Amino acid sequence: MSITLKVNGETKTLDADPEMPLLWALRDELNLTGTKFGCGVALCGACTVHVDGAAVRSCQTFLGDVEGASITTIEGFESKEAKALRQAWVELDVPQCGYCQSGQIMQAADLLTSTPKPSDQDINEAMDGNACRCASYQRIRAGIHRAAEILEV
Amino acid sequence: MNMLQYFKSKQTADLDEGRRFFLKATGGVTAGLVLGITVPGISSVKAAENASFTPFIRIAPDNTVTVIIKHLDKGQGTFSGLATLVADELDANWADVQGEYAPADAKLYNNLFFGEMQATGGSTGIANSFMQYRTAGAAAKSMLISAAAKKWNVAPSDVTIDKGVITSKSGKSGKFGEFVALASTLPVPEKPVLKSAEEFKLIGNPAHRRLDSAAKTTGQMNFTQDVQLPGMLVAVVARSPCFGATVKSFDSSAAMKVTGVTNVVQIPQGVAVVAKGTWAALKGREALEIDWDRSKAEVRSTSDLLAEYRELSDKPGLSATKANDIEGALSSADKIIEATYEFPYLAHAPMEPINAIADLKPGKSLDVWTGSQMQTVDQFVAASVSGLPTDRVKIHTKFAGGSFGRRANPTSDMVNEAVNVAVALKGKAPIKLVWSREDDIQGGYYRPMYVHKLKAGLDDKGNIVAWHHRIVGQSIVQGTSFEAFMVKDGIDATSVEGAVELPYAVGEHQLELHTVKVGVPVLWWRSVGSTHTAYVIETMMDRLAKAAGQDPVAFRLAKMKNSPREAAVLKLAAEKANWGNTKLSENVHRGVAVHKSFGSYVAQIADVRLNADGTMKVENVVCAIDCGIAVTPDQVAAQIEGGIGYGLGAVMRNKITLNEGEVEQSQFFDYEPLRMSDMPHVETHIVASSAAPSGVGEPGTPVIAPAVANAIFDGTGREIDSLPFSQHGLV
To answer: Which ipTM was obtained for this model?
Structure first.
């Protein structure tokens, strides 16, 4: 079945099953591999993308449900929050293996958009679904605070 | 894995000399300076050929310095660390430095601690390469200086390099690129002068940063999972529901009807479903029907194994350390403290599920892409399965999304499966083998399950006079190619690691091991033997301290007269945490632990909040580490933070259990990783040292569990003898 998506501002038409998770369409069909496969059941957040500006788990978002929606992946993510987070991540060397970090940044941006000055508790609540097996959490937390500071200027 | 010790006898170079490899220069294809390594024992002609094709450093006319990285980076920072060693000696401009993974070549890119094997493990990446990479950088610097001196007609002693700029006293200056063509024609200095510690600019600099962070924030970092090749197919494998079962028969008709599925083939590990995409492959696998033959499978339950292990723990085992008279020493003791500990199987669960890519041209060549932690083993296994000679097998090492030991598998299981599928399909397409998270949690290669029994005796002055320790568990290396090096007199060194040499005077010390055979595949898991031995030793130390009526830090220090580096980190952590003088909030308790692993010494002090509702939170950890020279201090801190988080998640709530041979956990809901809200604040203090660098990736992990357990013991008197904590109502 033909499905039209708007990904990173570009219109893409796929011949795919509407039940296919967005994750696999992005990775296998559109070669947007920055969005990661970690668990497939929305328990790790590695596959987080934005659909109409909100962070969602692409492994549990089905193509049929996002037809016509505006999808942003890490590759096309250029908001001011994205830039501040990237700057903070590099300043603090947040990533270790880095595999989860696309999802961490997409989720953290969602938090910063709604809560520009998040507390540690806000960060716990927003980020608890994004697992990092390297446990880079201390730096993710510091990175979010730092990005908030960058955005304030 | 502490192969450092096991392979010492096979070392081809040691740290003190460090220069028993030779450098050879050549003009590269783009007329840059290429420094290759050659190895003693290869004829000079062959060495020169090798050198031209196996560079160590490439400096291009555009000033880019490319450092060839022989180790896998799975998050621990070695990629940047090795580049740092070269860049510092070369005085390169860090912004012009990049890394590139080395091909598989055990003669040239071997781990100098492991003999002729290219492998990353045992926290040896920086340690084994410290002199090797620095020497290469220093040689390149010397040649660039000579080239500039020649061109400017000045004395080499009048030429200096700073941040990639070559300057003469006479006021001339230029960048590397201008001189590389000339430099490549000059002789390579046999013993280039290395910097003294005071001259380091990047090494030891807290502000120094990694090379790979930016690429990990944009989605550009390309892991094995992300590799796309023209015509590539994705394979998933249905593996046996319990370890050791085999396929009796299968029906692929429904699977073949799934859109996108191209093939269903049997391989030794199970039945592979091959499809045009990952989702189709997974759907196809769901539609498979397989009848398994369990006659040779492991079908025992965890309770059966525990009963057997506990029974064995009451019987004498093989001696790893023999006391003169352990029974006599125990009977002379004033007090005896005894405990039996149980440790579960643990999965590594790296964020990037297991995978490998095989592109086979039958009879001709095989290309393998994988986060290769042991290129030599992966290449050997790929060659064996494909029937090709090893020199036709190319290993493309990819950054790995974590490993924690899982990718250092002596059986190269992921490569083995990928190549088997490629062979079954006669090379019709490149094959990307993908494991799901369920496959990963249920797929074995776990940290083994262990039971420990420890009986320790105190005299009436609080001295330890007897230490009788017995360990029961599976061998990690038995039956693998590592057995010859790592099992001696029936003792698998990884089973008793961390318990052989104690930092404490314990009087009569006897350590025994029962090695049991269980059909569950096991593997090294970040910090290997120390994951369990440190817990037993360090929780026992607190129980003994309490029995002696002494403070846990003072009690330990009194017994560390022959362990100055352990004592130093313990004192440093105690001082930084203000041990004994801190007013903790209500319900917050404090515990300490110290342990040496992979050549490094770590002490941690954990503050743990125990809430009335049974929930707990480790709020703060003060850590002191002595890892010799800290090449990148910020990355040492990162590894301590991560190592603590990795150990803490496991000890809080992770276990793999079996029910009639079937693994009971399957996903992150029943094998839940540490979360943001669980992470303590970690403060890392690095002991200033001029000793050779030692391990960093693993030593932080084993210390956190006993530190937290000791805090709980301090606060409540509860002795937690079986892990994880969650099975004791602590969540």
So the answer is: 0.98
